[in-house]
ABC transporter ATP-binding protein
Amino acid sequence: MTTMPLGAQTAVRSTAVAARATDLTKVYGQGETQVVALDRVSVDFRQAEFTAIMGPSGSGKSTLMHCMAGLDTISSGSARIGDTELTGLNDKKLTRLRRDKIGFIFQAFNLLPTLNALENITLPMDIAGRKPDQQWLDQVVETVGLSGRLKHRPSQLSGGQQQRVAVARALASRPEIIFGDEPTGNLDSRSGAEVLGFLRRSVRELGQTVVMVTHDPVAASYADRVVFLADGRIVDDMQAPTADAVLDRMKRFDAKGRTS
């Protein structure tokens, strides 16, 4: 009898929307010092899809992720996670939203050195007073390849292993969406490839939704889709990206910057 691979039910790409920005604008400062970081950005991030956000320095890619994740306020427009509108939520409701519906993976691993890997993975749920779904937790730990390292503290793990703990922590509570801010920026190429492979597996096998900000065309090639920003606006949307295609697109940004 043929065994169906884990998560085969997610093989068909979902058309449901995990997060949506509509005419999202973010302005910093006033008067002569005013900077428009995001200029009426509208974009959907679909469920069970891996999206990379790219653009030149100062294009607004990190600002877009922070606004969508409820880490920064927006000046006008709309940002939604699932059916929840972020605009107007007070600090308590935003904290609950981030805790219950959003996972985060940062460039700095943000692990507590006094806790072992398993304790770091379950920490957000422990703080919320929720018990993890043991079957799901076991599946996540197996997916990221940490089964033999759960009792180790961060100082006993390599950089790649520490970031895998951070990935597992983001996945463990089954959030509606995971946001990654340069999650492989502090890793060597081999460790970075491992983490990106785990993120891609979490989408394809666990049905997770991942949105990642990166400057690396190779990292972007692990995604299903790349959204390109320039000057606070979306200027391109690439499906099934390759590293060469992404690099070519970024070179055109550089060429425009030199001639403008």
Observations:
- Confidence is low (pLDDT under 50) at residues 1-12.
- The helical segments are 61-68, 91-101, 117-128, 134-143, 159-172, 189-206, 217-220, 243-259.
- The domain at 49-72+88-259 is CATH 3.40.50.300 (Rossmann fold).
- The longest strand covers residues 17-28.
